[in-house]
Write a structure and sequence with these properties.
Chain lengths: 216, 216, 216
Amino acid sequence: MPTDAVLLVVLDLTGTFAFALGGALTALRATRLDVFGVVTLGMITALGGGTIRDVLLDALPPATFVDGRYLAVACAGGLVAAYAGPHLHRLATPILVADAAGLAVFAVTGATKATGLGFGPAQAVIVGAITAVGGGTLRDIAIGRVPAVLTSGFYAIPALIGATATVALGALGVATPTAAVAGALLCLVLRLVAVRYDLHGPFPLAVPEPEPEPRD
Amino acid sequence: MPTDAVLLVVLDLTGTFAFALGGALTALRATRLDVFGVVTLGMITALGGGTIRDVLLDALPPATFVDGRYLAVACAGGLVAAYAGPHLHRLATPILVADAAGLAVFAVTGATKATGLGFGPAQAVIVGAITAVGGGTLRDIAIGRVPAVLTSGFYAIPALIGATATVALGALGVATPTAAVAGALLCLVLRLVAVRYDLHGPFPLAVPEPEPEPRD
Amino acid sequence: MPTDAVLLVVLDLTGTFAFALGGALTALRATRLDVFGVVTLGMITALGGGTIRDVLLDALPPATFVDGRYLAVACAGGLVAAYAGPHLHRLATPILVADAAGLAVFAVTGATKATGLGFGPAQAVIVGAITAVGGGTLRDIAIGRVPAVLTSGFYAIPALIGATATVALGALGVATPTAAVAGALLCLVLRLVAVRYDLHGPFPLAVPEPEPEPRD
């Protein structure tokens, strides 16, 4: 249905913008980069997840690369952050909200794209989650941080839940736009609640002895 | 031959489990992660090499993604590590053995998959080695360590030798299962001997002057 | 035209050698690696950009992997650096020049390959720049540095300009070899001038308050 395809692209571009904004704001705070570095980190954050998604789905060349709108929107998001960011009173909250919005949208667009290409529900949920966490993971690695997907307990989990909700609603006959928006909102709320209340999974028991890093 | 294909999958799943276990145990020691972070690092370690392999072989979508067994086994290996790891007296040895086992198995399954897809012997050996070192490299980058493939002298070399043995035995008419198991055992023994005796290649002569990092 | 294809391969192998040399020299200085580690980092630097390029262009399996000349030239560049590097008086300048040469050549070969596969001018310019900066970015991430594409103002920009010049000259009817060499020289000169005079883009205004890294 053309309308569904349009919605998917609109959602995907929204997520691209949000991730570019959040990634570039992270660059502003994490390290002293000129405007090109800030925009580049925003673009890596915004386009990384969709590129990994399209490799996994064998949907090459990736839409993030051949469809100029993704590049333009990612660049715009980075520029907005570079010029508006320094005027914000604090950056932590805008970064968290932009990142959560990108996470929520990419979880459902990744899952929906997989379903549309004929992949089963399990693969759709997994690719949704990978799409959602991929860009932020590349961003964190690029600036030398341990990725949020490892350290931030409820990061992949809200993405998995949002993607599952979208896939399940679609299987129950709910129209794609409704299923996608519902899944994205669910993921967004879960992620923001998790950040607000510092939710995380159980920690493994402490390892018995502090060990030096082996040379090898 | 169906039996050969079955053996290849069994070996591949064994390597997946070993790498998931080793990767998740590394997470336990390297940094304080909750159980989701530990399992995620295990899965990155277990599935990274095979995903890179399938990109290089143009065997997309990657088996690590479309074949649910890889995801399930990787997740199981990570969970076992998260719950059993803290009860181990020391983690260094289990990590090294699990990592060496994954290295050995992926070197030969990567090479065998390449041969089966019609690639030549040189490409098969190289893709075997890349499959073997790929997951551990992603793991080390994710937690901010210089990858073992750079710092640990005999890491890629045993993988190259094991893959070469498998490809050579196959070319001499030895049945695939025998060639694969022989190559994997050779790689495993070489890797463990290298770790035990701290073998490494020659070091380049010292660079004449200590230089500050340039700004650019 | 066969001659054009030959030139493209010659240029591409030149860039591969330059990046392997520069990457391996970086390894000599950045951290104490044995000869296998040094050569491996050289090969990652030399082959990373072309591999990413071929994923984006859906030209899989990547030429860097199936064409043995790339692997051989990358390995040779790494070995030359490992054995000649310690005899150099200083490493900073050779690293910068080798890296700038690889950047210049890959920007135009990436763009030319994209054009040859039927991609439009915008995509050709972008893939040229990604090819050019890709290998060095992987190198920096592997040794734990923030990538030059983020910190070094005029790094992606000369690549974008060189690729644009090549694509524009090609569109104006200039023969491929001339367009490629002209674009590469332009990129090389711009990059060296940028390093020499420490050019960079404008820095965003300072962020108002120093903020602690959030836990999440």
